[in-house]
Design goal:
The protein has 157 residues and is an alpha+beta fold. It has one domain: Aminopeptidase (3-Layer(aba) Sandwich). Helix content is 27%, strand content 29%. Bound molecules: coenzyme A.
Length: 157
């Protein structure tokens, strides 16, 4: 499927869709107000290099999102930055949009000068990330027993 990945700052029309997906996927069940998540997402709209959010879209149709943030796991403040909030709408899954979003998020972080990026995920996502060159460095971290992955740039350097 043809699609484009853009920085949300260049395609702010997708702001509400991303805030809605992040809220529903990770925060709603914990009673966090949607407005709070929209406020946090606003941090991605400033000119500072991170945090930033990416949107996968085909024309004006929202497909998915991923972000790069300074901190994503309070148990591991020593690691930064993180690829986070990876989401593809259910009807567009299994078309490598998720793979492209994660790859682009890491690539953009490397282009900003970061030499390592981190990511945390449940055990059942392990294959999705190791297939893309992410290496697990810690298991069962924190209450949610997440796996922490690291990725470094391809090739020498
Ligand atoms: C995880 C998620 C982002 C993946 O998005 P996606 O666009 O479906 O990702 P891809 O298509 O790149 O790959 C997904 C799977 O489909 C497989 N796949 C991709 N294209 C395929 C194809 N043409 N034929 C068969 N399988 C294919 C991949 O191997 C992968 O399988 P795996 O995860 O078991 O290794 C999506 O399922 C999602 O949003 N889930 C809910 C939120 C979530 O869990 N986010 C991650 C938090 S860590």
């Amino acid at each position: 499927m043809n699609f484009t990945i853009s920085d949300l700052r260049q395609q702010p029309v997708f702001f509400d869709a991303i805030a809605d997906r992040i809220w529903r996927a990770w925060w709603k069940e914990h009673g966090v107000p949607a407005e709070y998540i929209a406020g946090r997402l606003q941090e991605n709209m400033t000119p500072s290099p991170i945090p930033f959010a990416l949107v996968a879209h085909r024309g004006d149709t929202f497909l998915g999102t991923a972000s790069v943030v300074a901190s994503d796991l309070e148990d591991r403040p020593q690691y930064s930055p993180w690829v986070a909030a990876v989401w593809v709408d259910p009807k567009y899954r299994m078309q490598e949009i998720g793979t492209e979003l994660v790859g682009r998020a890491a690539g953009d972080a490397f282009a900003l000068g970061f030499r390592r990026v981190y990511l945390c995920a449940r055990k059942d996502r392990r294959r999705f990330y190791t297939r893309q060159g992410w290496a697990p460095i810690e298991e069962d971290v924190g209450e949610r027993r997440l796996t922490v992955f690291i990725r470094v740039p391809d090739g020498p350097g």
